[in-house]
Design brief:
Helices cover 48% and strands 0% of the residues. By secondary structure, the chain is mostly helical. It is globular and about 40 Å long. The protein contains seven helices and no strands. It binds heme C. Heme C binds next to helix 4 and helix 6. The site of heme C (HEC) has 19 residues, from helix 4 and helix 6.
Length: 167
C-alpha cells in the first residue's frame, strides 16, 4: 500500500517540476489569466438599482425631438416585453415600489455586461449605428455616442451609484 502510494505520487511531482521549468507554459498561463481578467472587468456584474432609478428611468419619461416618450408606448398600452408601471395620475415619477418592478422587468431586456446584446439598447438605436431596424418606436438614438444611450449602456455594464445619504 505504502509502496503504491509512493509510486503514484512520484509522477505528479515530476509533472509539476516540468511545468515550472517550462517558460512557455508559464507565459501561456499568465496570458490566459490576463485574458480572463479582461473579459470580466468588474468582479460584480450585477445591475444597480440606484443607478437605474436615478439615471435610467428618467430617460424613459423624457421627450426627444420628433419622437414620443418611451413611456407613452411602453406602459399599460404596451403589447411587448417592455412594459413600465403606470404612473399614478398627477405624479411625474414612479414610487420606489413601482421602480423596483420596473427594474425587474427592464433587467430582463438586457444582457449584463453586454450592451451590444441588449434589446433595451438595440431597439431604439438607429440601424446604421447597429440598432434593430424593426422598432415601431423609431430611432430614438442616432448613435451609441448619444449621452442617454451611453447612460443606459453604463447601467448594463454594471455601473453603480451610491444611495443618497440618509437612505
Ligand atoms: C411610438 C411607440 C413607441 C415608442 C415611443 C417607443 N417604442 Fe419601443 N416598441 C414599440 C413597439 C410597438 C414595440 C414592439 C416591436 C415593434 O413593433 O417594434 C417596441 C419594442 C421595444 C423593445 C423590445 C421589447 C421586447 O418585447 O423585447 C424595446 C427594448 C423597446 N421598444 C425600447 C424602447 C425605448 C428604450 C424607447 C424610448 C427611447 C422606446 N422603445 C420607444 C413602440 C414604441
Amino acid at each position: 500500500m505504502l509502496k503504491r502510494l509512493a509510486e503514484t505520487e512520484l509522477p505528479e511531482v515530476e509533472t509539476r517540476g516540468a511545468f515550472m521549468m517550462s517558460g512557455r507554459f508559464g507565459m501561456a498561463l499568465a496570458a490566459a489569466v490576463v485574458l480572463q481578467a479582461a473579459s470580466v472587468p468588474a468582479a460584480d456584474l450585477s445591475l444597480d438599482y440606484e443607478f437605474f432609478k436615478n439615471r435610467v428611468e428618467p430617460i424613459f419619461l423624457k421627450k426627444r425631438d420628433g419622437h414620443a416618450r418611451c413611456y407613452v408606448c411602453h406602459s399599460d398600452r404596451s403589447g411587448n416585453a417592455f412594459r413600465l408601471e403606470k404612473l399614478t395620475s398627477g405624479s411625474a415619477s414612479w414610487t420606489d415600489e413601482q421602480s423596483r418592478r420596473n427594474f425587474q422587468l427592464v433587467s430582463a431586456l438586457v444582457v449584463p455586461g453586454d450592451p451590444a446584446q441588449s434589446r433595451l439598447l438595440l431597439y431604439p438605436l438607429a440601424p446604421e449605428a447597429g440598432g434593430n431596424s424593426f422598432h415601431s418606436g423609431g430611432r430614438q438614438f442616432s448613435s451609441p455616442n448619444d449621452p442617454e444611450w451611453k447612460i443606459i449602456a453604463q447601467w448594463v455594464q454594471g455601473q453603480k451609484q451610491a444611495a443618497p445619504a440618509g437612505k
